[in-house]
Amino acid sequence: MSKDMYDFIVQNRDCINIDLENGIITTPKGTNGTICSSTGYLRVKINKRLLQVHQILAVEYFGEKCIGMTVNHINGDKLNNKKENLEVISHRENVEHQWESGLAFNRGKEMRKLSEDKVRYIRDSHVPFKKTGENTLSALAEKFGVSKSTIKDIVNRATYKEIE
Fold first, then answer.
1. Cβ neighbours around 10 below 10 Å, total
2. How far apart (Å, rounded) are the C-alpha atoms in residues 160 and 107?
3. Residue 151 Cα distances to 100, 114, 136, 162, angstroms
4. E-state strands within the chain
5. pLDDT for the residue 13
6. How far apart are CA 56 and CA 43, in angstroms?
7. DSSP three-state, residue 61
8. Which among 89, 92, 59, 52 is positioned nearest to 74, based on CA atoms?
9. Which residues, other chains included, contact 61 with Cβ-Cβ below 8 Å and sequence gap of 6+?
10. Rounded distance, CA 51 to CA 120, Å?
11. Which spans in 63-112 are helix H?
12. What does the pLDDT look like over 16-33, one tens digit per residue?
């Protein structure tokens, strides 16, 4: 976490209610945040700025120790922001934790989510520029449980290059 982020959180702490025991933040509007669709982290808006709940709570739990460090969810559950599930570690340690726990997506052939048959199906069935229907990027992403950008990379042969 950057010093600027840390300072912003400290300066705006009075804009939110924090339940440290349960790892919950409540905004003035009475919300507990929304889940970011691209990262899976819970976030809240404070003074027109979106912040991740675990980072706010880490500042409360660990103070200045957060500066220059990464906040890690020990058990991998991005919605569990209790103190016992958060730790402040280096970026390198965070990446190692992701790999060791299986949280990181390995782009290596041996750990890919989609089989060769699924990749061929995606490439064969995708209809470019189609806005609706079962063969759009969005529909294929939902069908196979991956992101729209993953489907786009497959179609454009940015990934799974070795599959014809």
1. 13
2. 9
3. 26, 10, 9, 16
4. 17-19, 24-26, 34-35, 42-46, 49-52, 70-73, 86-89
5. 93
6. 9
7. helix
8. 89
9. 20, 83, 86
10. 39
11. 91-101
12. 999 999 999 998 888 888
Is the pLDDT at 47 greater than 80? The verdict is yes
CA dihedral angle for residue 126, residue 129, residue 132, residue 135, rounded to 10 degrees: 0
Nearest to 41, CA basis, from 65, 21, 23, 64: 23
Place of tokens 């890690």: 72
Q: CB within 8 A of 31, min separation 6: which ones?
A: 44
Residue 101 tokens, joined? 């726990």
Q: What is the pLDDT of residues 1-11, one digit of tens each?
A: 999 999 999 99
- In degrees, rounded to 5, the angle at the alpha carbon of residue 125 between the alpha carbons of residues 128 and 133 is 65
Select from 94, 86, 85, 70 the least CA-distant residue to 2. Answer: 70
Q: Amino acid letter at 29?
A: K
* CA–CA dist 22, 37 (Å, integer): 23
User: Are 27 and 40 within 8 A, CB to CB?
Assistant: no
